[in-house]
Amino acid sequence: MSQYVAGIDLGGTNIAAILMDAAGQTRGWATWPTEAGSGPAGVIERIIALIKFIMDQNGITEQQLRGIGLGVPGLVNSREGKSVFSPNLPGWRDIPVAEMVGREIGVPLIIDNDVRMAAWGEKLLGAGRGWEDVICLTLGTGIGSGIFIKGKMFKGRDESAGEIGHVTVEKDGPRCSCGNYGCLEMYASGRGIVRQAREALERGSSSMLLELAGGNAGSITAATVCQAAVKGDRLARQVMEKTALYLGIALAGLANILNPQRIVLGGGVMGAGELLLEPVRRVVRERAMPLNREVEIVAAELGERAGAIGAAALARQEFILEEGRTKWTW
């Protein structure tokens, strides 16, 4: 009898679900609106219903489903199977998600932060596949990461390791939401790129950005800045160069500390492609120690499905292949 696992990526706007077989091939994919306003109980009901829906749509029986991987935004205690706090999901504090979902579906479950699940996706089936020492960064609205040492994810004492977005790269930089000043997130996240562009416009810099944003500076996004940079806009290129500089400084430090084989960059900011990647590589070559400066820095491969794929891939490792990639399952 064929065996399958489900991977769930819970977001503030949508819930994505994927089915994966024992060979690591995807069998089904579906997304539903999260309806976060319905509260934790309502969202969990939708997660359970989506799992059952995708199984039914693909002819997978309860006996064939071996386990579930679940990625949840915000702070997650994977040891206790809880969502500790999720800022984009109202009322989500100390919610025993793993127990609630697993009890209803009747299979074991593994839970972690959504960015770490995306990192697992790249590590097992994407740009990090085949490498043991890998750092995966997601450059989105904020910056998240997954750090792999000898093939295992490093989480630290309280599962809060990997906050690369809050490494200081400019001592007198703007204040970050974390309370620190000059964090990498203030420069290399989507929010940081937009901040830099808007501030430059406020200083009177000329740019096609306003035209691309329909004349409204409030509508400028990181994608707008990337688009303008590709078109040769001077201001947008300056923003992307500064972004690459600070990101390269942070990655050079990480390379010196962890000596990784490969660094994988994903998230919406990576829509800039080589426009961002090449200067980042140059900065790392200039600033890292000789043994670390040739670390491979590549773009992620799995795109927006990385979180669900990673959740399913990790569940496959745990519940079908039984390789024990993590300590805590429910």
From TrEMBL:
The molecular function terms in GO held by this entry are: ATP binding; glucokinase activity
- Report the top EC class in one word: transferase
Give the GO cellular component terms, alphabetically.
cytoplasm
The reply on keyword Lipoprotein is no
What the entry lists under Pfam families is as follows: ROK
GO term, biological process aspect, one? glycolytic process
Q: PROSITE patterns recorded for this chain?
A: ROK
This protein's UniProt keywords: ATP-binding, Kinase, Nucleotide-binding, Transferase
Q: Which InterPro entries match?
A: ATPase_NBD (IPR043129), ROK (IPR000600), ROK_cs (IPR049874), ROK_glcA (IPR004654)
Q: Output the superkingdom of the source species.
A: Bacteria
Per its UniProt record, what SUPFAM superfamilies does this chain match?
Actin-like ATPase domain
The EC number on file is: 2.7.1.2
- The stretch of residues making up the signal peptide is none
Q: Which NCBIfam families does the entry link to?
A: ROK_glcA_fam
Q: Which family does the record assign?
A: Belongs to the ROK (NagC/XylR) family.
Q: What is this protein called?
A: Glucokinase
Tell me the classification of the organism that encodes this protein: Bacteria, Bacillati, Bacillota, Clostridia, Neomoorellales
Tell me the name of the encoding gene: glkA_2
